[in-house]
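Expect sequence, tokenised fold; for instance:
***
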Amino acid sequence: MIKNIDNFLEQKKIRPTAMRILIFKYLAEQNVATSLTDIENAFDKSERTTLYRTLKTFEENGVVHTIDDGSGVTKYALCEENCRCDVESDLHLHFHCSQCNETVCLTNHKIPQINLPEGYLAEDVNLVVKGICEKCNRI
């Protein structure tokens, strides 16, 4: 985990408030992508609006990326340290387990560049593999 979260957030042009630091730490401790409801449950004394705005600020400044895993609920995960969320170089696979309903980033498995027809411009690529995760497969 990043040692000096304050400096990291400032480098990303984000003012490091107490709540932003807490949410960053929470996301860093998770092994799976996390929904707003999960974060809301972890910070039950905080307002949903504050949590959502923090996540949006993080997303807009390249601290987290969103994942549409097909469950109908947006999930959030911290970006890798040098990530720019660039369609050409930074996108990776996600895996959604049909048994435990968890989604994980497979950051070592990059999405290959897709050659679109002339005139098309990719703004986002989301590749989710669905199946049974290693944890559920052992049971």
